Amino acid sequence: MTFAYEQAGSLADAARAAGGPDAKILAGGQSLLAAVKLGLAAPQTLVDLGALAELKGIKLEGDNVVIGAMSTHAEVAASSVVQQAIPALADLAGHIGDRQVRNRGTLGGSLANNDPAACYPAAVLGLGATIRTDRRAIDAGDFFLGLYQTALQDGEIITAVSFPRPQKAGWQKFKQPASRFSIVGVFVAQTSSGVRVAVTGAGPGVFRAAALEAALAADWSAAAAQKVAISAEGLNTDLHGSAEYRAALIPVLAARAVAAAT
């Protein structure tokens, strides 16, 4: 397979190149390069964002933690800003994949790929974050559309993600031991707009668990989460577990996440 490789020198250059026919944006490359090797993706051009300092960095903006799209998982996990403001997010980032993946994979790349078992989507949806691109700002609730589908338009580039600082937040996942993706992962948060619970790995995409949100809004406790029954309808069944197994895991992990948050 042959393709052109272009290392963008600026966001404008990246946007121009990404708008070309069959162009793919290369962030950390942890998913895209594997797909190319397997013949699942055949880009004519790879547009590398690795040299763009403007897409990196982690900072506080008021009550929000703003993380550049090209920040690696390891950088998010090690950030004192994230550790102090949203420790659950630092914990989540620190348990993605292995050390090699954490030092290459990026926040923006993970969100743009939207793997149904990825960890970051749960934090983004659970915290009600805003995804910033070179064109607009997208609310987390509008960003994730389904299996590997997002609201990103062709050539649109994620530049940063703004995470509101929660009152409390916790994260737990039951991982697939080889890939370390989530068989089920649950992110819980008390936010200014109420309790939010986001689940990854269990279905065809990340989703909010309304029954758990209602129970935890009434009683923020591990016991309250544990008592919630989750329907298996629409959940995944594969070699790692049945839909019923995943449904049973969700309140267990939610309870552990609440305990970790408190």
Gist?
By secondary structure, the protein is of the alpha+beta class. The protein has twelve helices and 14 strands. Helix 2 links the parallel strand 2 and strand 3 (45-48).
Note the beta-strand portion. 25-35%
Low-pLDDT runs: none
Strand-pairing-aware structural class: alpha+beta
Query: Could you report the average pLDDT, rounded to the nearest whole number?
Result: 94
Distance between the termini: 52 Å
The arrangement of helices and strands along the chain is EHEHEEEHHHHHHEEHEEEEEEEHHH
- Shape category: globular
CATH top-level class of the domain at 168-261: Alpha Beta
Task: Determine the fraction of residues in helical runs and give it as a percent range.
Answer: 25-40%
Number of strands: 14
CATH architecture annotation name of the domain at 168-261: 2-Layer Sandwich
Q: Can you walk through the features of this model?
A:
With 262 residues, this protein is an alpha+beta fold. Among the domains are: 1-51, Uridine Diphospho-n-acetylenolpyruvylglucosamine Reductase, domain 2, CATH 3.30.43; 168-261, Enolase-like, domain 1 (2-Layer Sandwich), CATH 3.30.390. The chain has helices at residues 11-18, 32-37, 73-78, 80-85, 87-93, 99-104, 107-113, 120-127, 140-143, 210-218, 222-226, 243-261, and strands at 4-7, 23-26, 45-48, 58-61, 64-68, 130-133, 137-139, 144-146, 149-150, 158-164, 168-175, 182-191, 194-200, 207-208. The strands form four sheets. A five-stranded antiparallel sheet has the order 4-5-10-6-7. A four-stranded antiparallel sheet has the order 11-12-13-14, with helices on both faces. The longest helix is centred in the last third of the chain and has 19 residues, at 243-261. The radius of gyration is 18 Å and the shape is globular. The relative contact order is 0.12. The model has no long low-confidence stretch (mean pLDDT 94).
